Amino acid sequence: MRSSESSSEKREASLLEAFIPIVFLIVFLSINVSIFGDDALSGSNQIVLILSAMVAAIMASTFGYRWDEIQKSIVKSITSAMGSILILLMIGSLAGSWLISGIVPAMIYYGLQILNPTIFLFAACIVCAIVSMATGSSWTTAATVGIALIGIGQAMGINEGVVAGAILSGAYFGDKMSPLSDTTNLAPAMAGTDLFTHIRYMMYTTFPTIGITLVIFLVMGFFNTAPETSVNTNEVLEAISSKFNVTGWLFIVPVVVIVLIVRKVAAFPALMIGTLLGVVFALIFQPQVIVEVSGYTGVYWKTMFVGVMKALYGHVGVTTTDPMVNKLLSSGGMFKMLNTIWLIVAAMMFGGVMEGSGMLKVIARAIMNKIESSAALIASTAGTCIFFNATASDQYLAIVVPGRMYADLYKEKGLAPENLSRTLEDSGTVTSVLIPWNTCGAYHSGVLGVGVLAFAPYCFFNIISPFMTILFGYLNIKIRRLSDKKSDLNGD
Fold it and tell me: Could you tell me the pTM of the whole model?
């Protein structure tokens, strides 16, 4: 009886009231990022999200919601992301095993050899795409290979803004498509789909975009009148080969994982198999690397055990003669994923309160009333992602908040969740680097030594991506419906 009385006392938030927690979040995140800069991702953004969740909880209490009801919504929200959290942990271990096995170094080794001074911009974009796919990080790619490519481009007399644009276009393509990337895992978690479905569905918009980007850089390279200078990458290649047994056999492991993905094996077991195979190949091809990362001088089998375990759970690095290569050949294991997991938990707290109290529904309804088609919904999602990149100054929040806002709207329109996850990445992940005060824009500008306004016009992949996803929406190309998914399941 008491429960029904409590229920009858509840009221719906007004649109203004529903926006109060979001405004609080945006304002304090902006302050937070302006003070902490790149370090905001190390925990202060998470605290702001938790405080914003508490503001939303206070608002919810004024609508008649009790704390135990709010807490249930938070727990339910966090529980919905547990699958992605488990996958993130496994991805951390996979990255570690692929490093000590020589798989990632081999990808970098062969990728660097694609460089050709006559098609430098085109090659630079491809190299960064390969490295970013291997590492799952545009940040790592820019801070390692990117710095080297900036120097090479300067030696060739090519405008540094154009070079940075090629680097970041490739880096964000790899970051966006790599199963090792945290944003690639975050987007499907927010939309309610799985990792590999998300990656497969992104291919439709991402491949045409990178294709157009590469053609533009190729044409620009043909019209480049800067004098060519011979560039030697032998030092980098020798640094890698001096530590690793670089061989094509190592590519068996990623090929196996790709086959598993194509055969629709669930993400966690596929990644587990990839991780274990990485360990096996490390023991076969790179025992000297395991000895180095173990830091243990004892019985041989114990040394192997310690080295493998450290690579799977913690930070390991391989020391070479090249400082740049040293930065590239490092991994954080499962531990590296904890900040992202912390962010997800904090974001799901905020989303849980907003959703459980009905405030997200109020905002969604206001938007929905102005959206008449699926294409308009996709365009609205893209615009919202860019808005949060510019206001919240963080690409993760540009995925998390719109993801939570629009998830139910996509269901109401009969759209499969992979449409949402694809749009979140096409618009949220890639446009973050185009904004000077966004953490991504500030980071890449500092690392590459090139102003955001200097390279932003040449980040063709990042610029074209949101337009491509909107175009697919309006042309009704590869817009999957929930009814299509049911047909697929019945067909199976």
Answer: 0.70
